[in-house]
Write a structure and sequence with these properties.
The structure is a homodimer. Chain A is of the alpha+beta class. Chain A has one domain: Alpha-Beta Plaits. Chain A has helices spanning about 15-25, 50-60, and strands spanning about 1-10, 30-35, 40-45, 65. Chain A has a 4-stranded antiparallel β-sheet with strand order 2-3-1-4, covered by helices on one side. Chain A starts with a strand and ends with a strand. At the A-B interface, helix 1 of A face helix 1 of B. Chains A, B: It holds the Pfam family HMA. Chains A, B: InterPro entries: CopZ (IPR049740), Heavy-metal-associated_CS (IPR017969), HMA_Cu_ion-bd (IPR006122), HMA_dom (IPR006121), HMA_dom_sf (IPR036163). Chains A, B: It comes from Sediminibacillus albus. Chains A, B: This is Copper chaperone CopZ. Chains A, B: It is found in: Cytoplasm.
Amino acid sequence: MKTTLEVKGMTCGHCQSSVKGALEGLAGVQNAEVDLATGKVDVSYDESQVTLTDMREAVEEQGYDVA
Amino acid sequence: MKTTLEVKGMTCGHCQSSVKGALEGLAGVQNAEVDLATGKVDVSYDESQVTLTDMREAVEEQGYDVA
């Protein structure tokens, strides 16, 4: 499955890395690509292993909001 | 000795930590306090061990400009 999250508050490459790392650290997330300029994060995942709620919580734990 | 560096380009807490860590990682730097809002970094250091040039280079290596 693929989804696009809209993440608010990322300001720099460190933020980008934090969000990417948090998502890719979840079991079932295969890939997360962050566009810093737009805040859009394209995620490939296995829906039998991870939910959108899991992803949202992982991003929020890093201190960013998900639209 | 104490000095204040003016660092440009820090946008978030990660940037703040990077700059603080880079400076405090230099032998002879005792403490570096970063004010993210103003970009001012107050540094306490031993001038027999570390130079202003060393500090400037350490910050620039993290990707920030020093005024």
